[in-house]
Amino acid sequence: MGKQKLCLGLLIGTIAGGLLSLLDRDARHYARGKMSAVKSGSSYYVKRPSEAVKNARDAFGRINTQFTNSADNAINALEQVENTLEQFTEFTERESPSS
After folding, report:
1. Exposure string for 29-54, b = 16+ CB within 10 A, e = fewer
2. Over the stretch 49-78, which tens digit does the pLDDT of each residue have?
3. pTM
4. Which of 45, 67, 68, 90 could form a disulfide with 52 if both were Cys (CB 3.0 to 4.6 A apart)?
């Protein structure tokens, strides 16, 4: 119930803020320009749905590749940290007097 009220309040606040911002002339012109760009872009892809699918597939492939590269880099960094900690631990064990 509380989550529902929060989401509704955020939605109403967002709509009210957007409408109030349209009182400014520059904001109206900016919004009009963006809406016409969205309209032309969406009508382009409605006429060419196969190209939209191809572009989405390409974008997903790029994101997947970037994620894989980032994960590999993170794994390498963790391995380097692990190796450094092992070397430090071995060094401190050799240097500390045995009981």
Report:
1. eeeeeeeeeeeeeeeeeeeeeeeeee
2. 999 999 999 999 999 999 999 999 999 999
3. 0.48
4. 45
